[in-house]
Design goal:
Arc Repressor Mutant, subunit A, 7-stranded mixed β-sheet, 8 helices, Rossmann fold, alpha/beta, 207 residues
Length: 207
């Protein structure tokens, strides 16, 4: 089945499966049934089986799922079977916070450097990572294999910067600017709007 044929809601659940399965592995659990996983995740057992059947199933009747193997298979589906190198554009509070999150590396996602329009106004490094000026960006990308740009810059600048990054060969964008990016079809953009998530929370608190 092609990725286009897989419902987006299923793809969005895959990282959640990965998180729960990783916790099970840390607890020494090697095998789990769909019902046991359902009890932990509060997703129905039938939904779990349907989701995983999009990719081949991976379970055995009467046995359930082998936890380490399922982690490996979901990791492959999510593209985590090879490391990815990232840069952060914008070394303000959010950019530094993301760069300081070392758990990305547990998934093979490595932030290599930060870039900022005024790097002298920021700390010189974040968790040992260098902070460069934007003028260094073209040469840096020529010398380093970067897959993903994390954008934590003001929305009025993000389209110009994203276009520059695209022209320099970047095809993966994790965008935290408060605006949706539109780039050519071969670019992959994940727009993250923190305020929208918070407003969903306030809705559920009200209702």
């Amino acid at each position: 089945m092609t990725s286009a044929a897989i419902p987006q809601v299923v793809i969005k659940r895959l990282p959640r499966y990965m998180r729960f399965l990783s916790e099970l592995k840390e607890q020494g659990v090697d095998r789990i049934s769909s019902q046991e996983l359902s009890d932990r995740m509060h997703v129905t057992a039938s939904q779990i089986r349907q989701d995983l059947n999009h990719f081949g199933g991976f379970g055995q009747q009467g046995y359930g799922y082998n936890v380490p193997n399922l982690i490996t298979e979901i990791g492959k589906i999510l593209g985590l079977d090879k490391p990815h190198n990232l840069i952060v554009i914008g070394a303000g509070n959010l950019g530094r916070a993301l760069a300081g999150y070392s758990s990305f590396e547990d998934r093979g996602l490595y932030i290599r450097a930060l870039f900022d329009a005024v790097p002298e106004n920021t700390v010189s490094d974040v968790r040992g990572l260098p902070v460069f000026g934007m003028d260094v960006l073209p040469d840096y990308l020529k010398q380093h294999g970067i897959d993903i740009a994390v954008l934590t810059i003001p929305k009025e600048n993000v389209r110009k910067v994203a276009s520059q990054l695209y022209e320099l060969g970047i095809r993966g964008f994790w965008n935290f600017a408060h605006i949706d990016l539109a780039l050519p079809e071969d670019a992959v953009v994940e727009n993250v709007h923190l305020s929208e998530s918070l407003m969903q929370l306030t809705y559920y608190m009200k209702h």
